[in-house]
Hints:
This protein has three domains: 137 residues, Rossmann fold; 101 residues, Serine Threonine Protein Phosphatase 5, Tetratricopeptide repeat (Alpha Horseshoe), CATH 1.25.40.80; 178 residues, DNA Cyclobutane Dipyrimidine Photolyase, subunit A, domain 3 (Orthogonal Bundle). Helix 6 packs across helix 12, helix 12 crosses helix 17 and helix 16 runs antiparallel to helix 17. The chain is mainly alpha-helical. The protein binds a DNA duplex through helix 6, helix 15 and helix 22.
Amino acid sequence: MTEQQSSATRFPVIVLFRHDLRISDNRALYAAANTGKPIIPVFIRDEGNTEASRPAGGARQWWLHHSLAALSASLRVLGANLVLKRGATQTIVDRLLDDTGADMVLWNRRYDPPGVRTDTSLKSELIRRGISAESFDGHLLHEPFLFKTGTGGFYRVYSPFWRALTAGPEPRDPVPAPRTLEPYHESMGSQCLNDWALLPEKPDWAKDFAKDWTPGENGAQEKLAAFLGGAIGGYDHDRDKPAIEATSRLSPHLAHGEITPFQIWHALKSPSLAREGRDVDKFRREIGWREFSYHLLFNNPALATKNYNASFDGFAWQNKADDLKAWQQGRTGYPIVDAGMRQLWKTGWMHNRVRMITASFLIKHLRIDWRKGEAWFWDTLVDADPASNAASWQWVAGSGADAAPYFRIFNPMLQGAKFDSLGAYVREFVPELKNLSDKYLHAPWLAPENILNEAGVVLGQNYPHPIVDHQAARQQALVAYANTRKDSPSH
DNA sequence: TTTTGAGTTGTTCGA
DNA sequence: GTCGAACAACTCAAA
């Protein structure tokens, strides 16, 4: 070995972690390990300004704390120490390069607009200075900047998007976790995770989260294995029933990159699942919706703040503060809505079907701007995702790409009766109604006085009267929508 | 260029 | 009780 080669191998390589908190199927980490160089894994908390990233909401911060602890432990087993830093990405990286003499920086790509901006500028700056900088896939099966319609645009409708995605080359296989990492022995002055104060105190509203969730890569793999070994068998049939554990619950793990869509895709090809073809297809399409949401966000950076369809800009929102508060606290008087909002607050997650019901209620029954709902979900969901959250709220509002028609207004009583017919979901999260019979559970105000008495329900005291009348609210929403269409410039 | 078929998740009304 | 139509056109994506 020449003098030059041996000195080249001595320079460490920096691996940036962001929302890819895993060691398996981590192509940046894998590539770093293959260089044989000492490795410095770094997580930079770059939340000083919204130009760099949308600051994590409270529930995501709780998750992030535990996920970083898990990642740190996994890396230590491999021989590397995770370095925690806080500040602007470029500044921190510059300092690390100066301090260590590292000549290579690797990371996995982000697709949210601030992340893209930050990483694009970082890469060009590093390359300009002769530092080797490379990024890898992992967060998405498709690269939004490569994925185009036949005429060169981006997809605005899900079905053609999905057809094109599945007609393309089979997604790559996952790469394994590195067996070992070459340690870097200098102290890097890592900050202390506890000092970041990511966990809530006084009150500790996340105290029940750990009953449902195990943040980290191991937790993610356990959830996947449990799902593929069980619930996927009834996925097509039961996934809309919130009382049944019929969904994968992988969303927070995906949001933090503790598992990749490549790993999920690969696992779905297992021969043991061959008999569940229909359910597997259905689940794959949900992965597809996550991809589509990122596709939309990548091509519409303001997806979380601006109506995708500008003809909604003139919509007459009511935005009553009391109504918003009642919705957030699960006190609307509509049991299925309240159950959902309380599940969200208690567990940091809400069943997908109920997300649609609660979102529809906020937007159409209360006529509160979808952005206020999006912001609440962003703050309270452990799986809050910049793409899925924004795209889904716009979908419900009717303002999004390939959105639900505006006149599609969920009826909370019907939805409750249809998808929580036995009432187990409502009874779990709205216990004050638990003794009410199925017949009135989704519309307690219709129950005769004696039935309410027997169930211990006193409307207006231990459970609210409905804050709006369904029929009237529906009519008003349709009128507001019709007026918007009349006023919109395109008409 | 034009045409064509299609488009996650619903509700209500009236026959 | 069941069923089909109306609700709104609009625009996308590919042939």
